[in-house]
């Protein structure tokens, strides 16, 4: 399973740098579940998860001069935890992506956690605008 999660994370990094042909389609399982730091209920399915991940990538990696960077990675079994730092609207954002995959190399669960509170509020506002605009 270590090889599978390594491949998934390598493809995820390629997605985040805009170098993954086909985008998220080949990376996400059809029944993937997305857990947002600002939405109470889990978001289920490839279509809605794609919308959230595209909005998150644009919000976290696309703003404030490209300050987004992963700082730590921990992998075990079918799961990886990727810590990141960035800034949104001039506010420092620290968070983790928790990614779990199946044995075919598709992401089946994606969970995002953020800190501090002012960062959560800034990300919530920016992502809300992005999702309302269609991605």
From TrEMBL:
Top-rank taxon, per record: Bacteria
Domain (SnoaL-like): residue spans on this chain: 16-109
Pfam family, one: SnoaL_2
Protein name from the UniProt record: SnoaL-like domain-containing protein
Species for this entry: Blastococcus aggregatus
